[in-house]
Amino acid sequence: MKTLLANLDKLSIRIKLTIIITGISLVVLLSLFVVSVFTQRGMLREALKNEVQILAEDMSRNCSPALVFDDRQAAGETLATLQSKSQVAFGSIVTVGGEMFAKYQRRADLVLPENLYLHMPIGAKSKSFFAGNFLKVSQPITFNGEQIGTLNICASLDRTRKILLRYVTLGMISLAGAVLLAWLLALRLQRLISRPIESLASTMLTVSSEQDYSRRVAMERRDELGTLVENFNGMLNQIQMRDAELQEKQDRLNYLAHHDPLTGLANRLLFNDRLHHALTNARRLNSRVALLFIDLDRFKNVNDSLGHKTGDLLLKEVASRLASITRANDTLARLGGDEFVIVSEQTSGYPGITTLAQKVQQALSWPLQVGRQELFVSGSVGVSVFPEDGENVESLMQCADVAMYQAKELGRNNYQFFTSGMTERAQESLEMENKLRKALDNQELLLHYQPQVDMASGAIIGMEALLRWQHPVMGLVSPGKFIPLAEETGLILPIGKWVLQEACRQAVLWQQAGYPAWTMAVNISAKQFWQADLVDTIGQALEESGFDSGLLELEITESAIMQDAEKAIDTMLRIRERGIKLAIDDFGTGYSSLSCLRRFPLSKLKIDRSFTNDILDGEDRGAIAEGIMALARTLKLDVIAEGIEKAEQMEFLLAKGCTEGQGFHLGRPMPAEGLADYYLQKVSLTSCANVVSQSAWVHGPA
């Protein structure tokens, strides 16, 4: 049975349905046929029994005279009439005493069961029963109401069986026809069920193999299969929607993985792939590939002063302009920050590359409209060319980067083709960085101090600490060379901390040596200002040196504090709470607004040297300096001018109300030892009577 079920499981639903429908039909028809056969058999036997009983009743009346007169011949003749009844095989008349009075037998060789010869007891009624192949009917013979004998008639069932056999034969034929019809109907019915299932299975297979979730099972049914198909189509619809959503997200992720989210340009990943592809084509075609590395000049100032939102808008506008000058087969990418690159496959050689670089310069030369502001931007462009400058992505990028920095060094807003000599300069810059990293540990850094003077009286009112680097081999390194490098590498943080500590320490030494309590001005870089531990660093320097916080003045540039005005105000208030003064260094060169200046807890404005240097060359510069002084008076702030190199400049500033200044005309930056001589020249000999030796000036009292 298990084997049969297992084999059935292997069959298709179509065959299973055909077998089931045909099998059920066969069982039902066969059952009906068997019932009808047995019913027909019963009906035939009942008809035979009725016929024989009627015959027995008629003959029992005819036989009674023969028994009364003991006329055996007449009785035999009466029984002989049974010859006309083909189904009657035997007949007998038995006396009440059980004696065979007369009998009839159709065939001499006929063998009858014994019980067919028994007579009926007196008083018994008519009796009939089937025995073997015979029907026996016993009928009492009466005369004047008294039983005088028994009439027995035996009918053969051969005729009944023949009729039943014919019925069975016709029934089997009919049954076969019915089964055939049932099979044909089963084929039709199974198609009604299996065809939708096969269609459903076929669609599922197609969907699974082709991953095509747009397919649907076309069927209109109201039954359970219709519900199944409807639900299946609904599931495909949900999967298609989910797949479309996933595909959309995948496309979006793929786009984000290869494009800059701000400008929509190719990012570094896609740029590397495009450049690699361009180099492959160039090798095959024996042509050139130009790589232009573009870095916007002073873009950080825009971010710091106008905010990152404005900076982002500026980058988008720059990207749009650069895209307008590139060809369809060129690749324009943003690597990050304010760095852009263009990959151009060139067949015209260097003239075409030069033209493209010039187009970049021209595209950036026009003012940019960002919101309501008109901004001017320029770019430094470094150009490297395959195969002359490099054979792969990395070497070309390195050469273009070096060329771009060369453009920066040459005043910005220009383009430079890479040359082998640039590599040497880049190596020198790297060596400079390595030496600078060691300078602090090797105590190569030192401070020079420039006097801040009351120009009306000539008295020293403060000192500004200026960083210097005395290298054992290179000698005194210009601040213009190493300070930008320190800013770029982050070394400005430990160096700035050291400057603050050293300046405070030196100021205390001067006080201990008996000199006036001058203000000590220390420059704070933008990176330092935005450090979370700035206030703690300042407090540590004051605590370790013992310097009075009221004499410390921190100089901060406009661009540094305008990066995030609210946060800057919070930091400045915390500094002011310690009694420390705050001055805006190089005032007038940044983007600070009057509303911000009113909120900043400042103590002084410092007029930038660019306004002081040309103060006598025209009315415009003088007007700017006057404007700064007027603004300082309005805000009740002190003002000091730097870069005073001529007496005429000092006289102009004094005439306009600016009494504090510093510059070469008033005193050059010098080491602590040199300031002793400078101070002696500023005061009379009597005021110097209590001044101790020059040694105490630097090293403290004995």
From TrEMBL:
Keywords: Membrane, Transmembrane, Transmembrane helix. Residues 429-683 form the EAL domain. Residues 287-420 form the GGDEF domain. The keyword Membrane applies. GO terms for molecular function: cyclic-guanylate-specific phosphodiesterase activity. The chain crosses the membrane at residues 15-39, 164-186. It comes from the Bacteria. InterPro entries: Biofilm_reg_signaling, CHASE8, EAL_dom, EAL_sf, GGDEF_dom, HAMP_dom, Nucleotide_cyclase, Rev_trsase/Diguanyl_cyclase. Pfam families: CHASE8, EAL, GGDEF, HAMP. GO terms for biological process: cellular response to nitric oxide; signal transduction. It catalyses: 3',3'-c-di-GMP + H2O = 5'-phosphoguanylyl(3'->5')guanosine + H(+). Residues 191-244 form the HAMP domain. PANTHER family: BIOFILM ARCHITECTURE MAINTENANCE PROTEIN MBAA (PTHR44757:SF2), DIGUANYLATE CYCLASE DGCP (PTHR44757). This is Uncharacterized protein.
